[in-house]
Structure formats: C-alpha cells, structure tokens
C-alpha cells in the first residue's frame, strides 16, 4: 500500500517507477489537477513536493478557513481540472496540440544518466505515445489533436471558450 495522500486520489498500489501505462497516465492527470488547484490558490510548491506539505484534507481546510467556502476535495479537484483545460484551450488557440506533447528526441535515444530505477534506460517511443493517448482519454480530450473536446469544455462550464477557439482557427487558416 502507498501513503494516505495518494489513496485520497484512488491510488492504492504503488505505480511502477519506470513503466509507462494507464495507471501512470492517470496518476499524472490527477496530480496535475491537484497541483493546478494549488497554483490557483498561490500555494508555492517550488522547493517542496506538495504531497509532503499539504495532504488533501489540509488543502480543503485551508480553503475553508481562508474563504469560508465549504469546498470538498472533489470540488477542488474539479477546479484544478477546469484550470488545466482552460490552459490547454489557450494553448490550442495559440496553435499548440498533440505534436507538441512529445519528449526531446534524446530521451528516446540516449540512456538516462541517473542513480534511480531509470538508470541506463531509454524511454520507449511507442509506450510514451500510448501513455500520452491514455492521458488524453482520461482528460476527455480529442485523441487526434490532444485538445479538450467541446463536450469536455461544456461539462466543465467552459463552453464559452469554444467560440474563441473556433474564431482563432478561422483567423489562422
């Protein structure tokens, strides 16, 4: 079993440190939402791993104490998810997409030079692409573009972003 913090996100077993699979993509997507929520509250996580400073309940209690809002962890994670999708939609408007979600070529070619479990390994390109596709699926994004689907934006109350994206696509094409 892994720590209580990760169990709060539905992860009860450790994720293999070197394998790129659905569980790792899910952990990344959920962690990204959590960190996004923290960023929106201007919580600094530059020097420390956020999991070691704030567990989920701490964050919920901090928000309640400072705002008076009776937010739940679910609502905070939803806030983070909305923010991740809004950032992604901004990037889409600026012309970024799936082709930009790629690691530097050297990581597929040159063995990693560290002392951890990845020492001497390269990242398998096909596994990376499959993990990226899992990540898009978990987020409800278009697998062909890597951008939020209209359905996902509407689900998150961000339907107003759709027209902005479409108008920018018209201007750039």
UniProtKB/TrEMBL annotation:
One of its GO terms (molecular function) is iron-sulfur cluster binding. Coiled coil: none annotated. InterPro entries: Ald_Fedxn_OxRdtase_dom3, OxRdtase_Ald_Fedxn_C, Tungsten_al_ferr_oxy-like_C, W-dependent_AOR. Pfam families: AFOR_C (PF01314). Residues 11-158 form the Aldehyde ferredoxin oxidoreductase C-terminal domain. This is Aldehyde ferredoxin oxidoreductase C-terminal domain-containing protein.
């Amino acid at each position: 079993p892994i720590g209580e913090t990760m169990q709060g996100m539905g992860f009860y077993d450790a994720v293999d440190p070197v394998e790129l699979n659905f569980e790792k993509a899910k952990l990344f997507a959920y962690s990204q939402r959590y960190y996004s929520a923290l960023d929106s509250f201007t919580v600094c996580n530059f020097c420390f791993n956020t999991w070691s400073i704030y567990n989920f309940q701490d964050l919920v209690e901090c928000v309640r104490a400072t705002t008076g809002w009776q937010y739940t962890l679910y609502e905070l994670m939803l806030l983070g998810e909305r923010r991740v999708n809004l950032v992604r939609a901004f990037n889409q408007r600026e012309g970024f997409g799936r082709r930009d979600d790629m690691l530097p070529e050297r990581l597929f070619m040159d063995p990693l030079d560290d002392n951890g479990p990845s020492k001497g390994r390269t990242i398998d390109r096909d596994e990376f692409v499959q993990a990226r596709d899992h990540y898009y699926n978990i987020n409800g994004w278009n697998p062909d573009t890597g951008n939020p689907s209209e359905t996902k934006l509407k689900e998150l109350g961000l339907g107003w972003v759709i027209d902005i994206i479409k108008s920018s696509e018209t201007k750039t094409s």
